[in-house]
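so the lab meeting is tmrw and i was supposed to have these ready like two days ago... anyway. pasting both below. for each one the top line is the aa sequence and the line under it is the structure tokens. i havent really looked at them closely yet so no promises
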Amino acid sequence: MTHDATGSRSFLFVLGSSRTDGNTELLARAAAAQLPDEHTQNWVDLSRLDLPDFQDDLHDTGSYTPGATEEALREATLAATDIVLASPLYWYTLSAQTKRYLDYWSGWLNAPGSDFKARMTGRRLWAVSVMAHSEPEVADGLVTTLRNSAAYMGMGFGGLLHGSAGRPGRIKADTEALIRAKTFFQGEAPPARFPYEEQAAA
């Protein structure tokens, strides 16, 4: 893990909305505002990056050569102790931008000589999402995707900070979500498990 003796942490906030300053970003920033000053923050807006769809051609070419934008994103990911995926709920799962980012993890995992998985083990994954529904269970698909991804990578999963809003800026009216945001990153991020692992341990 990337931290020092004082216990400081490095948070990478990955914004996966198609709208700048959208409700999900506003909720993520409300939660980030509660972090202690010794915890660093790095914000990446995927919609502003020149990042094409991931092309898995390793088995065809036998090599993997990342572009400059991809390499910068990989380095930012590896520099973080905590990765926060801030994605609106689009068709009950992650946005296309956020899914593309996770697809690139596949390339980083499989690149010749890669130690990506080993270096990600033990880090924490968090999620922030705003949806039109007021019922958080409609985001179960998003949560399952991220929990299973964290389990595969050996990461902890801190769960989902959810809010309810439709039009831009309306998250400010969701007082319950803003209250949850104040303590979201104080919660635990236990090691993620696949469902079959949880069933076996029960």
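ok protien two:
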Amino acid sequence: METLIGVLPQDILLHGPTKLYVDKYHWHQPDHGIVASYTAKARDVQDHFGLFRGVDQIEAFAQATVGSCCPFLECRKHKFGPEELRNRFIPAFISVGRVLFHNYIAEGETFMSIGKIIFYKFRQMVCEGRIYKVPAALDLDSYFSEFTREQMENYDLSKDFTLVAELWDITGRAIKKEAF
């Protein structure tokens, strides 16, 4: 794998089908960052007034960033695939820094996580970034086909995207199974 583009999220993430909050990867530079999207489903907003909870937004961002990028880099480093990774490591969501919510996500709305890798060493990764609502009917693959690292660094997006949340110091680590 050169990048996560074209990889199914369920092939790299270990989360079960009802807690998998990444539908697709749209842009990825392995040492710098990622853009991934998810559409809030009925089960995600059940008993929450039709809204995708803030805690689930944080989880979605963590899955899209540290949960996807760290395993990718570990597979590349050790020259094995995601299945071997599953046999050796368990992903752990270690901490959340600061989060500012600006808007909400309702059932059926698509949002994207745009995450920057701030630190990666010894199977631990720290990311920061933003969550945006995606304009209806926008083709994200096409939109991000010419996206650059500089645009990602500056959150240089069309004004049609709606800022939902800003996140800092989202930290995850791959822990060896022997530790359990």
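from a quick look at the 2nd one: The chain has a mean pLDDT of 94. The CA atoms of residues 38 and 112 lie 6 Å apart. will dig more after coffe
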